[in-house]
């Protein structure tokens, strides 16, 4: 490895070329600012600026005392879902159960599509009323409403309204894959905040904000991958921390919303200046319905609309009509409640099966997944379970500061009469690794 250059741009280009050519590998540490400056005969500030640009471009990441290291290539990022032709029993995809997704056509009998043209209101009046009714009770006064193409799209656009490459964002650790990938592609630095059974820890958030985090993404219920939800005490503790940093952008991703068995507790302090509450319909109506409601303060709403203008400002009104019909349907509403109860039974049933075999998941849990903590990487467990016909997801990719040691088990796609068989297989795998 031979880094060259006399200017920050030259050093940046040299390191990037070495990383792309394989001379610098993911996880490999770069020389310290002091040592590289001495080697190249340049000012330390020149090297520091080059390293900052490398971090902003996603080529490297600064890890405090651990120095600056080369990042994993963007193409290696994990995504949700599995190939549809997999022969394995799927407990890894994070998908809702297809049986609980409504028949969209049946929810729209006799509706005639009306074409919309440029310049018309971006949100249809029926959906606008539904959105305000749904989000206003859990938001601050002065709620302004926008629509985006799902929760991940909302988070990406919201971050882009205020932040620039290199800025820090506080996130839960372990963290949702969509958020991790969004931060990487935007050149933002994730600052992990530890989790426990009550959600994001307040002391960890305080430390992240002290490190300069300009935004925080909080999951109030059914956090992915752990399934944890905020307790009222923890939500209050987070509010108190955020009240000391009113300039920070607070994004609340309530993705499970109507399917959740847990109460919603707000983390928004009274003096928050930049905030947004995001509620998607993908878990209840299906991942193909790419629509999320975004309630926010007025300034953030205006900035978000500018970010949406490149896509003609609106989410398809044909899609809006489908969502409006579903959320207004008593039949679909009853189906959502049935799905909520079924997912809860599955979580409790699987957790009981595993606990009976000495495998304790993180509880209380909400959402489509259970989280089984492990003392080591879960990759070997995933491989061993695959040989037995089961597909589970290792927690490594969900980690921020370090790989997350655990298994994420999606309960929605497995018949309950197969829980015991799965539990026996997992117990055998764990015994084989410790025996």
Short overview:
This protein has helices at residues 8-20, 33-40, 44-56, 125-135, 151-162, 177-185, 202-210, 232-243, 282-285, 298-308, 317-328, 330-356, 379-387, 419-434; strands spanning 60-62, 68-70, 89-90, 144-148, 168-173, 189-196, 199-200, 213-218, 249-253, 274-280, 292-296, 369-373, 390-391, 393-394, 406-410. The protein has 435 residues and is α/β, with parallel strands linked by helices.
Q: Could you state the order of secondary-structure elements as H and E?
A: HHHEEEHEHEHEEHEHEEHEHHHEHEEEH
- CATH C-level name of the largest domain: Alpha Beta
Q: Helix count, per DSSP?
A: 14
* Low-pLDDT stretches: none
Describe this structure in words.
38% of the residues lie in helices and 15% in strands. By secondary structure, the chain is α/β, with parallel strands linked by helices. The chain folds into three domains: 8-74, Winged helix-like DNA-binding domain superfamily/Winged helix DNA-binding domain (Arc Repressor Mutant, subunit A); 80-99 and 332-434, Aspartate Aminotransferase, domain 1 (Alpha-Beta Complex), CATH 3.90.1150.10; 109-328, Type I PLP-dependent aspartate aminotransferase-like (Major domain) (Aspartate Aminotransferase, domain 2, 3-Layer(aba) Sandwich), CATH 3.40.640.10. Strand 1 and strand 2 (68-70) form a beta hairpin. The longest helix has 27 residues, at 330-356. It is globular, with a radius of gyration of 23 Å. The chain starts with 7 loop residues before the first helix and ends with a helix. The mean pLDDT is 90.
Write the layout of secondary structure elements.
Layout: H1 8-20, H2 33-40, H3 44-56, E1 60-62, E2 68-70, E3 89-90, H4 125-135, E4 144-148, H5 151-162, E5 168-173, H6 177-185, E6 189-196, E7 199-200, H7 202-210, E8 213-218, H8 232-243, E9 249-253, E10 274-280, H9 282-285, E11 292-296, H10 298-308, H11 317-328, H12 330-356, E12 369-373, H13 379-387, E13 390-391, E14 393-394, E15 406-410, H14 419-434
Parallel strand pairs: 3-13, 5-6, 5-8, 8-9, 9-10
Antiparallel strand pairs: 1-2, 4-11, 6-7, 10-11, 12-15, 14-15
Helix pairs in contact: 1-3, 2-3, 5-10, 7-8, 12-14
């Amino acid at each position: 490895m031979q880094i060259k250059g006399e200017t920050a741009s030259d050093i940046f280009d040299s390191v990037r070329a070495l990383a792309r050519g394989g001379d610098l590998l993911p996880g490999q540490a770069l020389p310290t600012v002091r040592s590289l400056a001495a080697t190249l005969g340049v000012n330390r500030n020149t090297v520091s600026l080059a390293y900052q640009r490398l971090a902003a471009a996603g080529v490297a990441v600064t890890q405090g005392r651990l120095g600056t290291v080369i990042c994993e290539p963007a193409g290696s990022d994990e995504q949700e879902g599995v190939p549809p032709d997999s022969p394995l029993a799927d407990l890894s995809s994070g998908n809702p159960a297809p049986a609980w997704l409504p028949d969209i056509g049946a929810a729209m009998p006799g509706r005639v599509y009306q074409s919309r043209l440029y310049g018309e209101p971006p949100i249809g009046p029926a959906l606008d009323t539904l959105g305000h009714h749904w989000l206003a009770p859990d938001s601050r006064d002065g709620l302004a409403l926008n629509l985006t193409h799902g929760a991940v799209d909302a988070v990406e656009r919201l971050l882009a309204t205020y932040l620039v490459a290199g800025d820090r964002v506080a996130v839960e650790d372990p963290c949702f894959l969509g958020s991790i990938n969004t931060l990487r592609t935007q050149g933002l630095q994730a600052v992990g905040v530890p989790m426990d059974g009550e959600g994001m820890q307040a002391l960890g958030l305080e430390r992240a904000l002290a490190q300069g985090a300009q935004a925080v993404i909080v999951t109030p219920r059914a956090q992915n991958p752990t399934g944890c939800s905020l307790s009222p005490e923890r939500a209050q503790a987070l509010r108190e921390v955020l009240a000391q940093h009113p300039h920070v952008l607070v994004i609340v991703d309530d993705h499970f919303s109507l399917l959740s068995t847990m109460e919603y507790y707000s983390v928004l302090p009274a003096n928050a200046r930049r905030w947004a509450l995001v509620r998607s319909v993908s878990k209840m109506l299906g991942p193909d319905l790419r629509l999320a409601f975004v309630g926010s303060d007025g300034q953030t709403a205006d900035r978000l609309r500018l970010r949406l203008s490149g896509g003609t400002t609106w989410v398809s009104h044909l899609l809006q009509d489908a969502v409006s019909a579903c959320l207004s349907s008593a039949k679909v509403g009853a189906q959502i409640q049935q799905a909520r109860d079924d997912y809860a039974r599955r979580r409790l049933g699987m957790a009981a099966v595993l606990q009976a075999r000495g495998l304790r998941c993180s509880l209380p849990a909400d959402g489509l997944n259970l989280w089984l903590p492990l003392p080591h990487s879960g990759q070997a467990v995933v491989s061993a379970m695959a040989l037995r016909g089961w597909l589970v997801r290792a927690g490594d990719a969900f980690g921020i500061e370090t790989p997350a040691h655990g298994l994420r088990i999606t309960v929605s796609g497995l018949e309950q009469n197969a829980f015991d068989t799965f539990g026996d297989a997992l117990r055998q795998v764990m015994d084989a690794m410790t025996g």
